[in-house]
Amino acid sequence: MRKKAALFFSILTVVLLVLSSSTYAAGKILVKQGSRGESVRQVQELLIEKGFLSGKADGICGQMTVDAIKLFQRENHLEVDGICGAVTFEALKKAPHHDPKFAAEHHPHKGEAVYVEATAYSAFDPGNGPNTASGTPVRHGVIAVDPSFIPLGSRVYIPGYGEAVAEDIGWGIKGNIIDVAFDTHEEALMFGRQELEIYIIEYGE
After folding, report:
1. Does domain 112-202 have CATH number 2.40.40.10?
2. H or E element that contains 58
């Protein structure tokens, strides 16, 4: 009898430890703008699985991931703050699946999301001319790109900046680096260098 009781309490202890560790892990989930790592990837995979996010889980919480979290929160009557904490994470795990088209139809920014390193420039920077490589004026609404990554003529949406067209190239623009044009040298300096998730609305030819 004592052996059975000891076995029962041993099993109960293991179960409680597993449950408490799961609860602890859920409580440690905190994914917000700029977060990186396995927690982000886990949340992204759930958002994709449930139909709230398109694309691949890259472990980087950019604007697209934040928008997906907000969309999920709105649909499930949670506080809409774009942050996946313990409450949102638990609700996400239990949520039913949506049609894959749901995310594309309900997100505020339509298009393919790509992660880039963005710098800024203007026609008034030392060594710069007034025109792009395409012959158009350097101005707000233009970006310089590596054409092998984003073809010239592509339209993109940049959070905090707006829509832009890829009309320029530069010797230092390689791979997933873009140069964002501004109307003044001061604005370009204020923008600095940022890591961003941008949206390709339409590819150029």
Report:
1. yes
2. none
Q: What is the CATH number that goes with domain 25-106?
A: 1.10.101.10
Tokens 């505020």 found at = 108
Residue 150 CA to residue 146 CA, distance in Å, equals 6
What are the φ/ψ torsions at residue 93 (nearest 5 degrees)?
-65, -35
Longest dimension (CA), the chain: 90
Whole-model pTM: value is: 0.53
The structure tokens 């707006």 sit at 162
DSSP strand pairing (155-158 vs 177-182)? unpaired
Q: Which amino acid is at 4?
A: K
- DSSP strand E in 1-141: where? 112-122
* Cα–Cα distance for residue pair 118/179, rounded to 1 Å: 6
Q: What beta strand segments (E) does the chain contain? A: 112-122, 142-144, 155-158, 162-168, 177-182, 194-202
pLDDT in tens, 60-81: 888 778 888 988 998 889 999 9
Q: Is the pLDDT of residue 39 over 90?
A: yes
Domain boundaries for CATH 2.40.40.10 within the chain: 112-202
The model's pLDDT over 133-186, given as tens digits with 9 standing for 90+, comes to 999 999 999 999 999 999 999 999 887 787 899 999 998 899 999 999 999 999
Residue intervals in the chain for CATH 1.10.101.10: 25-106
